[in-house]
User: What shape does this take?
Amino acid sequence: MSRNYSALALLRGALGGNRNWDQAWRSPEPRAHYDAVIVGGGGHGLATAYHLAKTHGMTNVAVLEKGWIGGGNTGRNTTIVRSDYYYPQSAAFFNHSVSLYEKLSRELNFNIMFSQRGMLTVAHSRGEVDFQRRLVNGMALNGIDMEMVTPDQARKLCPIMNFGPEARYPILGGMLQRRAGTVRHDAVVWGYARAADRVGVDIIQNCGVTGIDRDPASGAVTGVQTTRGAIGCGKLGVAVAGHSTMLADMAGFRLPLRSYALQAFVSEPLKPVLDVVASSALLGVYVSQSDKGGLVIGGNADAYASYAQRGNIPTAEAVSAALVEFIPSFSRVKMLRQWAGIVDYAHDSSPVLGLSPVPGLYLNCGWGGGGFKAIPAGGETFAHTIATGTPHPLITAFSLDRFRDLALVDEAAAAGIEH
Ligand SMILES: Cc1cc2nc3c(=O)[nH]c(=O)nc-3n(C[C@H](O)[C@H](O)[C@H](O)COP(=O)(O)OP(=O)(O)OC[C@H]3O[C@@H](n4cnc5c(N)ncnc54)[C@H](O)[C@@H]3O)c2cc1C
Assistant: This one.
Protein backbone atom coordinates (compact mmCIF):
# COMPACT_ATOMS: atom_id res chain seq x y z
CA MET A 1 0.00 0.00 0.00
CA SER A 2 1.34 3.45 -0.91
CA ARG A 3 2.68 5.31 2.12
CA ASN A 4 1.54 8.61 0.59
CA TYR A 5 -1.96 9.84 1.29
CA SER A 6 -3.81 10.75 -1.92
CA ALA A 7 -7.22 10.37 -3.55
CA LEU A 8 -5.93 7.27 -5.34
CA ALA A 9 -4.61 5.77 -2.09
CA LEU A 10 -8.02 6.42 -0.48
CA LEU A 11 -9.75 4.61 -3.32
CA ARG A 12 -7.31 1.69 -3.12
CA GLY A 13 -7.76 1.57 0.65
CA ALA A 14 -11.54 1.53 0.30
CA LEU A 15 -11.42 -1.28 -2.28
CA GLY A 16 -9.18 -3.30 0.06
CA GLY A 17 -11.58 -2.83 2.98
CA ASN A 18 -9.17 -0.32 4.59
CA ARG A 19 -7.14 -3.17 6.05
CA ASN A 20 -3.81 -2.35 4.38
CA TRP A 21 -2.94 1.13 5.62
CA ASP A 22 0.60 1.56 6.94
CA GLN A 23 1.08 2.43 10.59
CA ALA A 24 1.24 6.24 10.72
CA TRP A 25 4.21 6.25 13.13
CA ARG A 26 6.20 3.67 15.10
CA SER A 27 6.27 3.22 18.88
CA PRO A 28 9.96 2.44 19.42
CA GLU A 29 11.70 1.59 22.66
CA PRO A 30 13.86 4.51 23.84
CA ARG A 31 17.56 4.32 22.95
CA ALA A 32 20.27 4.93 25.56
CA HIS A 33 21.41 8.16 23.91
CA TYR A 34 20.16 10.69 21.34
CA ASP A 35 21.88 13.67 19.74
CA ALA A 36 18.80 15.71 20.64
CA VAL A 37 15.83 15.02 22.89
CA ILE A 38 12.69 17.13 22.72
CA VAL A 39 10.44 17.01 25.80
CA GLY A 40 6.77 17.45 24.92
CA GLY A 41 4.82 15.78 22.12
CA GLY A 42 2.60 18.75 21.29
CA GLY A 43 2.70 20.65 18.02
CA HIS A 44 5.85 22.58 18.90
CA GLY A 45 7.83 19.53 20.03
CA LEU A 46 6.85 17.43 17.02
CA ALA A 47 7.40 20.24 14.49
CA THR A 48 10.83 20.90 16.02
CA ALA A 49 11.84 17.24 15.79
CA TYR A 50 10.60 17.11 12.18
CA HIS A 51 12.74 20.11 11.21
CA LEU A 52 15.79 18.86 13.13
CA ALA A 53 15.75 15.71 11.01
CA LYS A 54 14.48 17.07 7.72
CA THR A 55 16.12 20.47 7.54
CA HIS A 56 19.24 19.97 9.68
CA GLY A 57 20.00 16.29 9.03
CA MET A 58 19.87 15.35 12.76
CA THR A 59 18.12 11.99 12.64
CA ASN A 60 19.16 10.61 16.05
CA VAL A 61 16.34 12.55 17.73
CA ALA A 62 13.55 11.58 20.15
CA VAL A 63 10.36 13.29 21.29
CA LEU A 64 9.44 12.27 24.85
CA GLU A 65 5.78 12.71 25.76
CA LYS A 66 4.45 11.92 29.23
CA GLY A 67 0.95 11.09 27.97
CA TRP A 68 -0.14 10.77 24.37
CA ILE A 69 0.89 13.12 21.56
CA GLY A 70 -1.55 16.02 21.23
CA GLY A 71 -2.99 15.37 24.71
CA GLY A 72 -1.80 18.80 25.85
CA ASN A 73 -2.86 22.19 24.58
CA THR A 74 -2.40 21.36 20.93
CA GLY A 75 -5.32 18.94 21.17
CA ARG A 76 -7.31 21.23 23.48
CA ASN A 77 -7.29 24.60 21.76
CA THR A 78 -9.92 26.47 19.76
CA THR A 79 -7.86 26.18 16.54
CA ILE A 80 -7.74 29.84 15.50
CA VAL A 81 -4.82 30.77 13.26
CA ARG A 82 -4.15 34.49 12.68
CA SER A 83 -1.26 36.97 12.68
CA ASP A 84 -2.87 40.19 13.95
CA TYR A 85 0.07 41.13 16.18
CA TYR A 86 1.20 44.73 16.64
CA TYR A 87 4.96 44.87 17.08
CA PRO A 88 7.23 44.27 14.07
CA GLN A 89 9.04 41.33 15.74
CA SER A 90 5.74 39.52 16.40
CA ALA A 91 4.29 40.46 13.03
CA ALA A 92 7.27 38.94 11.20
CA PHE A 93 7.13 35.73 13.25
CA PHE A 94 3.36 35.11 13.28
CA ASN A 95 2.83 36.13 9.65
CA HIS A 96 5.55 33.68 8.64
CA SER A 97 3.69 31.03 10.62
CA VAL A 98 0.40 31.70 8.81
CA SER A 99 2.27 31.50 5.48
CA LEU A 100 3.74 28.13 6.51
CA TYR A 101 0.25 26.92 7.53
CA GLU A 102 -0.98 27.79 4.03
CA LYS A 103 1.47 25.21 2.61
CA LEU A 104 1.48 22.72 5.47
CA SER A 105 -0.96 20.12 4.07
CA ARG A 106 1.34 19.65 1.07
CA GLU A 107 4.53 19.78 3.17
CA LEU A 108 3.30 17.03 5.52
CA ASN A 109 1.13 15.11 3.01
CA PHE A 110 -1.68 15.41 5.57
CA ASN A 111 -4.84 17.48 5.21
CA ILE A 112 -4.76 19.97 8.08
CA MET A 113 -8.08 21.51 6.93
CA PHE A 114 -6.95 25.15 7.01
CA SER A 115 -10.17 27.12 6.48
CA GLN A 116 -9.26 30.77 5.88
CA ARG A 117 -12.72 32.07 6.66
CA GLY A 118 -11.52 35.37 8.18
CA MET A 119 -11.57 36.63 11.76
CA LEU A 120 -13.67 39.61 12.79
CA THR A 121 -12.94 41.35 16.11
CA VAL A 122 -15.72 43.81 16.83
CA ALA A 123 -15.51 47.19 18.59
CA HIS A 124 -18.23 48.30 21.01
CA SER A 125 -17.26 51.93 21.67
CA ARG A 126 -15.66 54.93 19.95
CA GLY A 127 -12.58 54.39 22.09
CA GLU A 128 -12.31 50.78 20.93
CA VAL A 129 -12.75 51.80 17.28
CA ASP A 130 -9.89 54.32 17.66
CA PHE A 131 -7.72 51.69 19.34
CA GLN A 132 -8.43 49.16 16.58
CA ARG A 133 -7.65 51.76 13.91
CA ARG A 134 -4.25 52.33 15.50
CA LEU A 135 -3.64 48.57 15.63
CA VAL A 136 -4.75 48.04 12.04
CA ASN A 137 -2.56 50.88 10.72
CA GLY A 138 0.44 49.57 12.63
CA MET A 139 -0.13 46.00 11.46
CA ALA A 140 -0.65 47.11 7.86
CA LEU A 141 2.73 48.89 8.02
CA ASN A 142 4.22 45.54 9.07
CA GLY A 143 2.67 43.78 6.07
CA ILE A 144 -0.30 42.09 7.80
CA ASP A 145 -3.57 41.92 5.84
CA MET A 146 -5.72 43.82 8.33
CA GLU A 147 -8.66 46.08 7.53
CA MET A 148 -11.27 48.08 9.42
CA VAL A 149 -14.93 47.27 8.79
CA THR A 150 -17.95 49.50 9.25
CA PRO A 151 -21.03 48.38 11.23
CA ASP A 152 -22.79 47.54 7.93
CA GLN A 153 -19.87 45.43 6.76
CA ALA A 154 -19.72 43.70 10.14
CA ARG A 155 -23.45 42.95 9.87
CA LYS A 156 -22.94 41.42 6.39
CA LEU A 157 -20.08 39.27 7.68
CA CYS A 158 -21.98 38.04 10.72
CA PRO A 159 -25.66 39.06 10.81
CA ILE A 160 -26.43 37.01 13.93
CA MET A 161 -24.35 39.27 16.19
CA ASN A 162 -26.33 41.55 18.51
CA PHE A 163 -27.20 44.57 16.32
CA GLY A 164 -30.52 45.18 18.08
CA PRO A 165 -31.40 48.69 19.35
CA GLU A 166 -31.48 47.29 22.89
CA ALA A 167 -27.92 45.88 22.70
CA ARG A 168 -26.02 46.71 25.87
CA TYR A 169 -22.78 46.63 23.86
CA PRO A 170 -23.56 48.07 20.41
CA ILE A 171 -21.30 47.00 17.52
CA LEU A 172 -19.65 50.06 16.00
CA GLY A 173 -17.47 48.18 13.50
CA GLY A 174 -14.38 46.08 13.91
CA MET A 175 -11.16 44.81 12.45
CA LEU A 176 -10.87 41.90 10.05
CA GLN A 177 -8.08 39.60 8.96
CA ARG A 178 -9.26 37.70 5.89
CA ARG A 179 -6.32 35.24 5.85
CA ALA A 180 -7.11 34.12 9.41
CA GLY A 181 -9.17 31.03 10.06
CA THR A 182 -9.23 27.61 11.69
CA VAL A 183 -7.05 24.52 11.34
CA ARG A 184 -7.92 21.02 12.53
CA HIS A 185 -5.72 20.71 15.63
CA ASP A 186 -5.37 16.89 15.73
CA ALA A 187 -4.33 16.91 12.10
CA VAL A 188 -1.40 19.21 12.90
CA VAL A 189 -0.22 16.78 15.59
CA TRP A 190 -0.74 13.67 13.50
CA GLY A 191 0.69 15.25 10.35
CA TYR A 192 3.92 16.35 12.07
CA ALA A 193 4.19 13.03 13.97
CA ARG A 194 3.88 10.99 10.81
CA ALA A 195 6.29 13.22 8.88
CA ALA A 196 8.83 13.25 11.75
CA ASP A 197 8.65 9.45 12.08
CA ARG A 198 9.34 9.10 8.38
CA VAL A 199 12.57 11.08 8.64
CA GLY A 200 13.75 8.89 11.52
CA VAL A 201 12.53 10.62 14.71
CA ASP A 202 11.60 8.30 17.62
CA ILE A 203 8.28 9.37 19.15
CA ILE A 204 8.07 7.89 22.64
CA GLN A 205 4.72 8.24 24.39
CA ASN A 206 3.96 7.46 28.05
CA CYS A 207 7.45 8.68 28.88
CA GLY A 208 7.44 11.52 31.41
CA VAL A 209 10.63 13.41 32.13
CA THR A 210 11.24 13.47 35.90
CA GLY A 211 14.76 14.88 36.13
CA ILE A 212 17.46 16.62 34.08
CA ASP A 213 21.09 15.46 34.32
CA ARG A 214 23.91 17.99 34.09
CA ASP A 215 27.66 17.68 33.89
CA PRO A 216 29.02 18.74 37.31
CA ALA A 217 31.98 20.59 35.79
CA SER A 218 30.44 22.49 32.85
CA GLY A 219 26.80 22.48 33.99
CA ALA A 220 25.78 21.33 30.50
CA VAL A 221 22.86 18.96 29.98
CA THR A 222 23.87 15.31 29.61
CA GLY A 223 20.50 13.58 29.66
CA VAL A 224 17.12 13.13 31.30
CA GLN A 225 15.58 10.82 33.87
CA THR A 226 12.23 9.48 32.69
CA THR A 227 9.49 7.13 33.76
CA ARG A 228 11.08 4.71 31.26
CA GLY A 229 14.63 5.06 32.55
CA ALA A 230 17.60 7.36 31.93
CA ILE A 231 18.16 8.70 28.41
CA GLY A 232 21.35 10.53 27.48
CA CYS A 233 21.33 13.46 25.05
CA GLY A 234 23.64 16.02 23.50
CA LYS A 235 20.99 18.73 23.33
CA LEU A 236 17.66 19.12 25.09
CA GLY A 237 14.69 21.10 23.75
CA VAL A 238 11.86 21.78 26.21
CA ALA A 239 8.41 22.36 24.67
CA VAL A 240 6.00 21.47 27.48
CA ALA A 241 3.72 24.56 27.54
CA GLY A 242 2.08 24.93 31.00
CA HIS A 243 4.67 22.64 32.60
CA SER A 244 7.70 24.67 31.50
CA THR A 245 8.44 26.05 34.95
CA MET A 246 8.52 22.48 36.33
CA LEU A 247 11.12 21.46 33.75
CA ALA A 248 13.13 24.61 34.51
CA ASP A 249 13.02 23.64 38.21
CA MET A 250 14.48 20.25 37.30
CA ALA A 251 17.34 22.01 35.51
CA GLY A 252 17.91 24.43 38.39
CA PHE A 253 16.67 27.78 37.10
CA ARG A 254 13.46 29.82 37.22
CA LEU A 255 11.29 31.10 34.39
CA PRO A 256 9.19 34.30 34.57
CA LEU A 257 6.05 32.40 33.56
CA ARG A 258 2.76 31.54 35.27
CA SER A 259 0.46 28.68 34.37
CA TYR A 260 -3.31 29.11 34.18
CA ALA A 261 -6.23 26.98 33.04
CA LEU A 262 -7.77 28.19 29.78
CA GLN A 263 -11.14 26.68 28.92
CA ALA A 264 -12.89 25.77 25.68
CA PHE A 265 -16.50 24.79 25.01
CA VAL A 266 -18.17 22.94 22.14
CA SER A 267 -21.93 22.95 21.51
CA GLU A 268 -24.24 20.42 19.95
CA PRO A 269 -23.94 20.41 16.13
CA LEU A 270 -25.96 23.06 14.29
CA LYS A 271 -26.67 23.71 10.64
CA PRO A 272 -24.23 26.27 9.16
CA VAL A 273 -24.84 29.61 10.93
CA LEU A 274 -21.43 31.20 11.24
CA ASP A 275 -18.80 31.40 8.51
CA VAL A 276 -16.25 33.72 10.15
CA VAL A 277 -14.44 33.60 13.45
CA ALA A 278 -16.28 36.23 15.52
CA SER A 279 -14.59 37.78 18.53
CA SER A 280 -15.25 40.48 21.11
CA ALA A 281 -12.30 41.41 23.32
CA LEU A 282 -14.52 43.61 25.52
CA LEU A 283 -17.01 40.83 26.23
CA GLY A 284 -14.22 38.25 26.52
CA VAL A 285 -15.54 35.67 24.05
CA TYR A 286 -14.84 34.33 20.57
CA VAL A 287 -16.65 31.69 18.54
CA SER A 288 -16.38 29.76 15.29
CA GLN A 289 -18.33 26.86 13.83
CA SER A 290 -16.54 23.59 13.20
CA ASP A 291 -16.95 21.43 10.11
CA LYS A 292 -19.08 19.06 12.20
CA GLY A 293 -21.40 21.96 13.06
CA GLY A 294 -20.47 22.50 16.71
CA LEU A 295 -19.81 26.00 17.97
CA VAL A 296 -16.24 26.21 19.26
CA ILE A 297 -16.13 28.82 22.00
CA GLY A 298 -13.29 30.37 23.99
CA GLY A 299 -12.85 33.23 26.43
CA ASN A 300 -10.56 34.48 29.16
CA ALA A 301 -8.29 32.31 31.29
CA ASP A 302 -9.29 31.31 34.83
CA ALA A 303 -8.36 34.04 37.30
CA TYR A 304 -5.76 32.13 39.33
CA ALA A 305 -2.75 29.95 38.60
CA SER A 306 -3.60 26.24 38.36
CA TYR A 307 -2.63 22.89 36.83
CA ALA A 308 -6.20 21.51 36.88
CA GLN A 309 -7.13 20.74 33.29
CA ARG A 310 -10.87 21.00 33.91
CA GLY A 311 -11.22 24.77 34.55
CA ASN A 312 -13.58 26.48 37.00
CA ILE A 313 -17.33 27.20 36.95
CA PRO A 314 -17.23 31.04 37.32
CA THR A 315 -15.19 31.36 34.11
CA ALA A 316 -17.53 28.96 32.29
CA GLU A 317 -20.45 31.11 33.42
CA ALA A 318 -18.74 34.36 32.38
CA VAL A 319 -17.94 33.01 28.90
CA SER A 320 -21.51 31.71 28.43
CA ALA A 321 -22.98 35.06 29.52
CA ALA A 322 -20.66 36.90 27.12
CA LEU A 323 -21.64 34.59 24.25
CA VAL A 324 -25.35 35.19 24.80
CA GLU A 325 -24.76 38.95 24.93
CA PHE A 326 -22.70 38.77 21.73
CA ILE A 327 -24.97 36.42 19.71
CA PRO A 328 -28.35 36.21 21.52
CA SER A 329 -29.76 33.39 19.37
CA PHE A 330 -27.12 31.06 20.83
CA SER A 331 -28.89 31.23 24.20
CA ARG A 332 -30.92 28.17 23.18
CA VAL A 333 -27.90 26.11 22.12
CA LYS A 334 -26.86 23.20 24.36
CA MET A 335 -23.22 22.73 25.32
CA LEU A 336 -21.82 19.27 24.66
CA ARG A 337 -18.28 19.42 25.99
CA GLN A 338 -16.01 21.63 28.09
CA TRP A 339 -12.37 21.25 29.08
CA ALA A 340 -9.25 23.27 29.91
CA GLY A 341 -5.59 23.28 28.98
CA ILE A 342 -2.73 24.67 31.04
CA VAL A 343 -1.17 27.64 29.31
CA ASP A 344 1.93 29.52 30.44
CA TYR A 345 2.09 33.31 30.25
CA ALA A 346 4.94 35.79 30.41
CA HIS A 347 4.24 39.35 31.62
CA ASP A 348 4.26 40.65 28.04
CA SER A 349 2.15 37.80 26.56
CA SER A 350 4.96 36.96 24.12
CA PRO A 351 6.66 33.56 23.90
CA VAL A 352 10.04 32.61 25.33
CA LEU A 353 12.09 31.03 22.57
CA GLY A 354 15.79 30.32 22.43
CA LEU A 355 18.69 29.69 24.79
CA SER A 356 18.45 29.03 28.52
CA PRO A 357 20.95 29.63 31.34
CA VAL A 358 21.89 25.92 31.13
CA PRO A 359 24.27 25.00 28.26
CA GLY A 360 22.61 22.60 25.82
CA LEU A 361 19.07 23.29 27.08
CA TYR A 362 16.74 25.27 24.80
CA LEU A 363 13.35 26.82 25.57
CA ASN A 364 10.10 26.90 23.60
CA CYS A 365 7.36 28.15 25.95
CA GLY A 366 5.25 31.11 27.08
CA TRP A 367 2.59 30.47 24.44
CA GLY A 368 -0.31 31.50 26.70
CA GLY A 369 -1.20 34.20 24.20
CA GLY A 370 -1.94 31.51 21.63
CA GLY A 371 0.76 29.21 20.36
CA PHE A 372 -1.26 26.92 18.09
CA LYS A 373 -1.01 29.49 15.29
CA ALA A 374 2.76 29.56 15.90
CA ILE A 375 3.49 25.83 15.54
CA PRO A 376 4.98 25.79 12.01
CA ALA A 377 7.22 28.81 12.63
CA GLY A 378 7.97 27.71 16.20
CA GLY A 379 9.14 24.28 15.02
CA GLU A 380 11.22 25.71 12.18
CA THR A 381 12.98 28.39 14.23
CA PHE A 382 13.42 26.25 17.37
CA ALA A 383 15.02 23.45 15.32
CA HIS A 384 17.41 26.00 13.80
CA THR A 385 18.28 27.26 17.29
CA ILE A 386 18.94 23.76 18.66
CA ALA A 387 20.88 22.57 15.60
CA THR A 388 23.13 25.63 15.32
CA GLY A 389 23.22 26.76 18.96
CA THR A 390 22.27 30.27 17.76
CA PRO A 391 18.75 31.75 17.93
CA HIS A 392 17.02 32.00 14.57
CA PRO A 393 16.81 35.67 13.45
CA LEU A 394 12.98 35.56 13.65
CA ILE A 395 13.04 34.79 17.40
CA THR A 396 15.85 36.91 18.84
CA ALA A 397 13.28 39.36 20.31
CA PHE A 398 11.71 36.49 22.28
CA SER A 399 14.83 35.49 24.25
CA LEU A 400 14.72 34.95 27.99
CA ASP A 401 17.18 37.86 28.33
CA ARG A 402 14.46 40.34 27.41
CA PHE A 403 13.19 40.25 31.00
CA ARG A 404 16.66 41.13 32.29
CA ASP A 405 17.13 43.83 29.62
CA LEU A 406 13.57 45.20 29.96
CA ALA A 407 13.10 44.69 26.22
CA LEU A 408 9.54 43.34 26.54
CA VAL A 409 7.33 42.79 23.47
CA ASP A 410 3.96 43.68 24.97
CA GLU A 411 1.37 41.82 22.93
CA ALA A 412 -1.37 41.71 25.58
CA ALA A 413 -3.83 43.24 23.10
CA ALA A 414 -3.03 40.68 20.39
CA ALA A 415 -3.27 37.79 22.85
CA GLY A 416 -6.98 38.64 22.91
CA ILE A 417 -7.52 37.06 26.31
CA GLU A 418 -6.94 38.35 29.80
CA HIS A 419 -4.84 36.61 32.36
C1 LIG B 1 -8.65 26.25 25.61
C2 LIG B 1 -7.50 26.73 24.80
C3 LIG B 1 -7.73 27.46 23.65
C4 LIG B 1 -6.66 27.90 22.86
N1 LIG B 1 -6.95 28.51 21.68
C5 LIG B 1 -5.94 28.84 20.84
C6 LIG B 1 -6.23 29.35 19.55
O1 LIG B 1 -7.40 29.48 19.16
N2 LIG B 1 -5.19 29.71 18.76
C7 LIG B 1 -3.89 29.57 19.16
O2 LIG B 1 -2.99 29.93 18.41
N3 LIG B 1 -3.58 29.02 20.37
C8 LIG B 1 -4.57 28.65 21.21
N4 LIG B 1 -4.29 28.08 22.43
C9 LIG B 1 -2.89 27.91 22.83
C10 LIG B 1 -2.26 26.70 22.14
O3 LIG B 1 -3.09 25.57 22.26
C11 LIG B 1 -0.89 26.38 22.74
O4 LIG B 1 -0.13 27.57 22.84
C12 LIG B 1 -0.12 25.38 21.89
O5 LIG B 1 -0.91 24.27 21.58
C13 LIG B 1 1.13 24.98 22.61
O6 LIG B 1 1.72 23.89 21.93
P1 LIG B 1 2.87 23.10 22.64
O7 LIG B 1 3.32 22.04 21.70
O8 LIG B 1 3.88 24.08 23.14
O9 LIG B 1 2.20 22.51 23.97
P2 LIG B 1 1.25 21.19 24.26
O10 LIG B 1 0.46 20.88 23.05
O11 LIG B 1 0.61 21.46 25.53
O12 LIG B 1 2.36 20.08 24.37
C14 LIG B 1 3.21 19.97 25.50
C15 LIG B 1 3.31 18.52 25.87
O13 LIG B 1 4.29 18.36 26.89
C16 LIG B 1 3.92 17.25 27.66
N5 LIG B 1 4.64 17.29 28.92
C17 LIG B 1 4.49 18.14 29.96
N6 LIG B 1 5.34 17.83 30.95
C18 LIG B 1 6.08 16.77 30.52
C19 LIG B 1 7.11 16.00 31.08
N7 LIG B 1 7.59 16.22 32.32
N8 LIG B 1 7.64 14.98 30.34
C20 LIG B 1 7.18 14.71 29.10
N9 LIG B 1 6.18 15.40 28.52
C21 LIG B 1 5.63 16.43 29.22
C22 LIG B 1 2.40 17.42 27.82
O14 LIG B 1 1.79 16.19 28.14
C23 LIG B 1 2.01 17.94 26.45
O15 LIG B 1 1.53 16.93 25.58
C24 LIG B 1 -5.32 27.63 23.26
C25 LIG B 1 -5.08 26.90 24.42
C26 LIG B 1 -6.15 26.44 25.18
C27 LIG B 1 -5.86 25.61 26.40
